């Protein structure tokens, strides 16, 4: 939907109509990181702080903001009868504490942070982040990746489109094959300067979030691996290992789990089985949509928000208008 059409829908009050229509359905927001308003880093994962403030103030005004565990319990027990929203963050970036925490505390909005436990306290980016910046910061060139059926890709400052395409295609590879491609690229690309905004929390930061009383902590695997690309043993290790670590370290663990990447082909029945074995009754995806008591509790839907969403889009997506329009 174009910005002009979004604006027209919003001015006509579509978000208010659909919010009331969907008052019995739970909306779960999915963020990753924030960036300070004066931070020059531009990336879809990073929501500017002022934009996040506007979004949270909108939620506070028009939705009942609950912790995810409490909202799911109520939805399962008696159903929801008023617009209800939950806020979640994936991965465990330091900005969850440094930028988001003060805003959420001031507004009294609970949140759940899903951490990839193997990255907490380590000065190492996700492979997707590393590759994106390595491709863009290397000297302009072309690299032949035909060996892996990836063709010839551009490297250098103008390679943003190729970088995203390569990353999205690599996400579909079996994990072991992907590691081989990354190892080869690591020998050919410059060591990237990853922006500070992609720095992860350490466990002291996680503890500080929990002392606020409004944050709960959940597992997001150990190594942020896409589960459907792993072996059976790896699936069990990534899920059980991260859940056990969160339960051991967190004073406010959530009952829920978040799938890395989280699309419909990024998890499978093996993940569901491993979650059940670990005593985890819910999992959140990145499949767009709202939730009710009939939604698969191991594939709960979320609205993934990034730095390029304007307030019109935010309001319409919270209400369920944009998914309806696309369908």
In words, what does this structure look like?
The longest helix is centred in the last third of the chain and has 18 residues, at 232-249. It is globular and about 55 Å long. It has two domains: 3-123 and 200-326, TIM Barrel (Alpha-Beta Barrel), CATH 3.20.20.370; 127-186, no CATH class. It is built from 13 helices and twelve strands. Strand 10, helix 11 and strand 11 form a beta-alpha-beta unit. The strands form three sheets. Strands 1, 4, 5, 6, 9, 10, 11 and 12 form an eight-stranded parallel beta sheet that branches. Strands 2-3 form a two-stranded parallel ribbon. It has a two-stranded antiparallel ribbon with strand order 7-8. It has helices spanning 3-11, 14-21, 49-62, 68-77, 95-107, 127-137, 160-170, 175-186, 203-211, 232-249, 269-277, 311-319, 321-326, and strands spanning 26-31, 33-35, 46-48, 64-65, 84-91, 111-115, 141-144, 152-155, 215-219, 253-258, 282-284, 303-304. It is 43% helix and 16% strand. 43% of the residues are buried. With 327 residues, it is α/β, with parallel strands linked by helices. Helix 1 (3-11) packs across helix 12 (311-319) and helix 10 (232-249) runs parallel beside helix 11 (269-277).
